[in-house]
Amino acid sequence: MSKVRFGCFAAFLVAMGCGDQETSQVGPDTSASSSTTSTSATTSTHGATTSTATSSATVGAGGEGGVGGSGAGGGGLGGQPVPMFTLTGTVYSNEDGSRIPGAKVRVMTDGAEVTADGEGGSSGAFSIEVPDPSDVFLEASADGYAALVRGVHIPTSTTYRDYYLPAQATVDAFAAATHTDLDPAKGSLWLSFENAKVAGYGVAMPGVDHDPILAVDPDMGPVVSDVTLAGDVDHWFVLVPNIAAASVSFDLVVPSGHHCTPREPITEWKIYPGKITYYDADCD
Fold it and tell me: How far apart are CA 21 and CA 4, in angstroms?
């Protein structure tokens, strides 16, 4: 996966675009023409799983390259070491695309985290070891920014995952515009429909309690809507706020004649208190 953009809702709240970040997509109300799809090779139902190894990451100083990370594999059966897979990446600000010095990245299952202050300035780069194979959830966080969790299916052909963190003030303003009170005891799910060309993409979460789903209207800004409301780069996402912390599954809602392929083939996604879990799919 190349650079992932957390979405461009900041463009509706501050006078800025999303720079060279990648897109997240959106679409119109298509209750008559949309289809709800379950987990498959092209469209998906999703939730969260956990992993079982002790890992740590080094984030921060250095030049353009990733900073060397550390991580220890747990013992396997018969005392054999657990195979580990190294992920690298960089933590950026979604507000202006700059690198975030002192950002932290950690594997959520064990909570191990390391930050590094090296020579020559901070780069926000990280390297972290995770069990191979596994489905792991990694959190990136930094002071003043909303914590963002990404699920990663291991093994993967792409060894890096970049993070674009929205400012906490931007998330709060987005919620306030729709009169949504974000509960710190609950988490939110961000769904990005990459490369969608029409409106009408959304999510169905039967049996999961949450507040009304939010999207962006091209003229009105953040609104309550179960589906995306435009087919351009600034509107390719929906936000499901205030989900009780748990492993959840869901169905993507895809306009008739269109398809979505999840970027991470994970069937359950983890929701954490006070954090945003990021999910993205390639759509047409």
Answer: 7
Question: How much is the mean pLDDT over the chain?
Answer: 74
Residue from 107, 120, 114, 117 nearest 60 by CA? 117
Name which residue leads in pLDDT, 193 or 69. 193
Instruction: State how far the alpha carbon of 120 is from the alpha carbons of 27, 69, 102, 123, in Å.
Output: 44, 18, 13, 9
Chain centre to alpha carbon of residue 54: 22
Domains of the chain with CATH codes: 23-48+179-283 (no CATH), 57-165 (2.60.40.10)
In sign, the C-alpha dihedral spanning 234, 236, 241, 243 is: negative
> 25-34, 75-84, 251-260 — which is least confidently predicted?
25-34
Distance from the Cα of residue 184 to its chain's centroid: 18
Its sign, for the CA torsion 38, 41, 42, 46, is positive
Cβ–Cβ < 8 Å for 17, 177: no
Helices (H), 194-237: none
The pLDDT of residue 74 is above 70: no
Under DSSP, the state recorded for 188 is E
* Torsion angle of the four alpha carbons 59, 64, 65, 67, in this order, in degrees rounded to the nearest 10: -20
Query: Confidence band (pLDDT; 50, 70, 90) for 122?
Result: low
pLDDT at 73 over 70: no
Q: What is the DSSP string of 146-194?
A: --EEEEEEES-S--B--EEEPBHHHHHHHHHHTT----TTEEEEEEEEE
- 200 close to 235: Cβ distance less than 8 angstroms: no
